[in-house]
């Protein structure tokens, strides 16, 4: 259907009209414009230039006629036409009419044409100037608003409360505190500052400029207070993050029977949405105020309350509130779906499934999903592990043409990377027409999660090359990549970049730095960074405790735990994992068992497989292998091969071959294709001289197709990261490396012959394992005072462990070797692990 109207020679066309009501509305609007033009044309025919035109019927006066025309104006062009007609036919226009024309200019054209009209007006009053002050204020032109106020005062116009309110609103919008104080001073001089209208504007201005002390003083000295006064103060405290003051004022309002408007209620709800103890009662009180004020049908407030309950983990209350709405719209659905997928709540498949059920309801009700709907639903699929459902949602995203949305793009990347579908994640990234920092961050964090750490660093450098500015989450993900690769130099560069960008003040940034230095083998730098942080959360304390635990500094780790408890920070599962690891690596058996009991009884934390493995390692280190085996049998993790591998390692250390055989067979039943148990059992047979059994174990590995993961070691130097495998000769400095290695081995031969740890089998030191090659390269390039830090992907073998101790003594060097179990600090012929690893 096609409709067209001709007005002033212009054709107005309406295509794809869906209903008669819309057609009628459009026709009425166009007819009103046509009527305005016709009235002006007829009036012009009766007017002579410079002469007063008689009022056309049925209007009693020309003022009434032009006021009627100005109310019908919908564009600046129409207002200008009426203005021209007034200038020609009604030179004696009243001040009221001229102010109405000024208001039309302000409404339709902004302050510039209004300023010209004000300059031309023969007479002006406070209303005239107030209109222009307000127009400048709405455009964010605070200096011009204040200039207009000063101009009115110079012209002898008696400015009123509306003048000051408009000027203060301009200062509020622009955040000009100094100008606001100047207006405040003028209001005091004119005796208008204590009136409720101006005082409310002052409270609003000071609170929006962050001066809550000034806002409260104005509020306290005000002669009269109304609901607006209280609401402005409450909103100011919420904006300033002063929760305690907000709660006090809110309680005073409730006792005084003051009402909260929708804006203030929304602000209070937002404040209550933050995590923290003691705010749930306030949240319920605010909910009661919303119902009492009759605003429980307000979409904005109901959505805010659903969000508030969801952020506190009160999903039952959030769902009940959502279901109490008879006809929820898509905004409420979006809020409820997002509530089910919040990080703050304990997410399980059931909770995520509820979010997907709500999405199905959105479709069944015939609602059109928005970009917020899809981003939340994709997160639900991610949390629940519903990859196939997520792919269907991806198809609907394409159907609704939302694939270019940044947050949806990042949600899709997260979904595919978390599901292990890296190629699909890369494909989503490449197919996106534009990449912002959100999608780049999703790619970097996805690569880190899938242990593609080098790719994560490469993507980070690409994002910098694209001219994008990384945010805090990007930097944190990149720091985790540096920590996993143990590349401290790259991590230091990222830290400098974060400091330059102003991110170093954030606790999460400090936590990432502590983790990076700890994983890179620099426990002193990690401790310094922890002490430099302005504030510490549970993650900070857990990081520094785990750092000292992994480096064998058990007493230091427990000292930090005591400081954490004294600081009233509640430890979590990760904290106790660090504490138990410290006790395990330090041989503190009784203390470790006591902390394990404290975790469950005093803090109500459920032990995980990692906690139980630490206890097994703790008992195994003390030689209490029977107790360790009994602990496993009584544990809920008795069918997990990880915990049995810990016992097998203890059997190897204590040379309990009989128990080790039984444990190894148990692991092979649970995990027949893992090489770890075969390798440990093979080495146990060799240590016991059972060469035939060792050979059978190797044959069994071949029969079952079990392949040992190749060992890889790497070291970071100024010129970059250098990696090695056993017997590697691909390095450009290979000749110098092997020469240096031969020199070191020849120097330790005399020590080795007198060292009881070195057996004949172990004297074959020319089997150049990867960590020895990395240490040799470090000896070549690093100064005598610098420790040599080497990282390895597998547990260090006994031969290399003994060799490192001897090299540290003969070369008088500190060697730090990281394997998957712990850090080994070799100094003067001994290791921090006390030969138990």
UniProtKB/TrEMBL annotation:
Q: Which organism is it from?
A: Oryza sativa subsp. japonica
Keywords from UniProt, A to Z, are: Repeat, Transit peptide
**What Pfam families has UniProt attached to this entry?**
DYW_deaminase, E_motif, Eplus_motif, PPR, PPR_2
Name of the protein described by the UniProt record: Os01g0959600 protein
Region described as Disordered: 34-56
- NCBIfam families xrefs: PPR
The processes (GO biological process) annotated in the record are:
RNA modification
Identify the residues that the record assigns to the DYW domain, covering every copy: 758-837
Note whether Repeat occurs among the keywords. yes
Q: Which GO terms describe its molecular function?
A: RNA binding; zinc ion binding
Q: Where would I find the PPR repeats?
A: 125-159, 226-260, 329-369, 436-470, 537-571
């Amino acid at each position: 259907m096609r409709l067209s109207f001709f007005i002033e020679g212009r054709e107005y066309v309406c295509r794809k009209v869906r209903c008669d009501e819309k057609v009628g509305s459009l026709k009425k609007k166009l007819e009103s414009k046509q009527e305005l033009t016709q009235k002006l044309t007829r009036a012009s025919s009766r007017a002579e230039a410079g002469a007063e035109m008689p009022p056309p019927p049925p209007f009693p006066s020309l003022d009434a006629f032009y006021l009627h025309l100005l109310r019908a104006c919908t564009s600046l062009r129409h207002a200008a036409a009426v203005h021209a007609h007034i200038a020609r036919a009604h030179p004696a226009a009243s001040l009221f009419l001229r102010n109405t024309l000024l208001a039309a200019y302000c409404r339709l054209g902004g302050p510039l044409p209004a300023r010209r009209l004000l300059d031309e007006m023969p007479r002006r009053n406070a209303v005239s100037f107030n209109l222009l002050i307000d127009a400048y204020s709405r455009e964010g032109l605070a200096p011009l608003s204040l200039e207009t106020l000063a101009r009115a005062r110079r012209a002898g116009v008696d400015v009123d409360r509306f003048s000051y309110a408009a000027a203060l609103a301009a200062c509020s919008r622009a955040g000009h505190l100094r100008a606001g104080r100047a207006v405040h001073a003028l209001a005091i001089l004119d005796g208008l500052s204590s009136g409720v209208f101006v005082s409310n504007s002052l409270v609003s201005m000071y609170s929006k400029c962050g001066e809550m002390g000034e806002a409260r003083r104005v509020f306290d000295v005000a002669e009269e207070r109304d609901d607006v006064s209280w609401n402005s103060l409450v909103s100011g405290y919420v904006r300033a993050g002063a929760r305690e003051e907000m709660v006090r004022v809110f309680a005073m309002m409730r006792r005084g029977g003051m009402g909260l408007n929708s804006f203030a209620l929304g602000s209070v709800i937002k404040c209550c949405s933050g995590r923290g103890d003691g705010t749930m009662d306030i949240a319920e009180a605010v909910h009661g105020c919303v119902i009492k004020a009759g605003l429980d049908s307000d979409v904005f407030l109901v959505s805010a309350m659903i969000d508030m309950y969801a952020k506190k983990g009160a999903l039952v209350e959030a769902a009940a509130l959502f279901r109490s709405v008879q006809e929820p719209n898509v905004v409420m659905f979006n809020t409820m779906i997002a509530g089910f997928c919040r990080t703050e709540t304990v997410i399980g498949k059931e909770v995520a499934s509820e979010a997907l059920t709500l999405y199905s309801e959105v479709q069944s009700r015939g609602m059109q999903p928005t970009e917020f709907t899809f981003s939340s639903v994709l997160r639900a699929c991610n949390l629940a592990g519903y990859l196939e459902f997520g792919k269907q949602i991806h198809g609907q995203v394409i159907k609704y043409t939302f694939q270019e949305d940044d947050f949806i793009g990042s949600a899709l990347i997260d979904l595919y990377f978390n599901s292990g579908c890296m190629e699909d994640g890369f494909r989503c990234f490449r197919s996106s027409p534009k990449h912002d920092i959100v999608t780049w961050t999703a790619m970097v964090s996805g690569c880190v999660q899938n242990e593609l750490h080098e790719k994560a660093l490469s993507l980070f450098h690409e994002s910098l090359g694209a001219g994008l500015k990384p945010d805090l989450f990007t930097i944190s993900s990149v720091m985790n990549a540096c920590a996993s690769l143990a590349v401290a130099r790259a991590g230091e560069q990222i830290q400098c970049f974060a400091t330059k960008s102003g991110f170093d003040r954030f606790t999460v940034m400090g936590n990432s730095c502590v983790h990076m230095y700890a994983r890179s083998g620099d426990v002193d730098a990690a401790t310094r960074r922890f002490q430099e942080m302005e504030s510490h959360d549970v993650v900070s304390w857990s990081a520094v405790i785990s750092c000292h635990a992994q480096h064998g500094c058990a007493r230091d780790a427990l000292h930090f735990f005591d400081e954490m408890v004294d600081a009233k920070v509640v430890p979590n599962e990760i904290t106790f994992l660090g504490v138990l690891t410290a006790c395990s690596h330090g041989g503190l058996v009784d203390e470790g068992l006591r902390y394990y009991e404290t975790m469950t009884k005093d803090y109500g934390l459920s032990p995980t497989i990692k906690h139980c493995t630490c206890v097994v390692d703790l008992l195994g280190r003390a030689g209490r292998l029977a107790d360790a085996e009994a602990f496993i049998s009584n544990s809920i993790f008795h069918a997990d091969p990880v915990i049995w591998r810990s016992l097998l390692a203890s059997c190897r250390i204590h040379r309990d071959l009989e128990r080790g055989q039984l444990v190894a067979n148990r692991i092979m039943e649970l995990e027949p294709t893992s090489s770890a148990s075969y390798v440990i059992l093979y080495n146990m047979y060799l240590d016991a001289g059972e060469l035939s059994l060792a050979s059978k174990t190797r044959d069994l590995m071949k029969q079952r197709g079990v392949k040992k993961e190749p060992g890889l070691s790497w070291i970071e130097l100024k010129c970059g990261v250098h990696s090695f495998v056993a017997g590697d000769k691909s390095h450009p400095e290979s000749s110098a490396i092997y020469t240096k290695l031969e020199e070191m081995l020849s120097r330790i031969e005399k020590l080795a012959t007198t060292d009881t740890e070195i057996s004949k089998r172990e004297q074959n030191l020319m089997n150049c394992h990867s960590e020895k090659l990395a240490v040799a390269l470090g000896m070549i390039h690093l100064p005598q005072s610098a420790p040599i830090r080497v990282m390895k992907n597998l547990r260090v073998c006994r031969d290399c462990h003994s060799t490192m101790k001897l090299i540290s003594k003969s070369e008088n060097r500190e060697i730090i070797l990281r394997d998957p179990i712990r850090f080994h600090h070799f100094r003067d012929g001994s290791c921090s692990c006390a030969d138990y690893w």
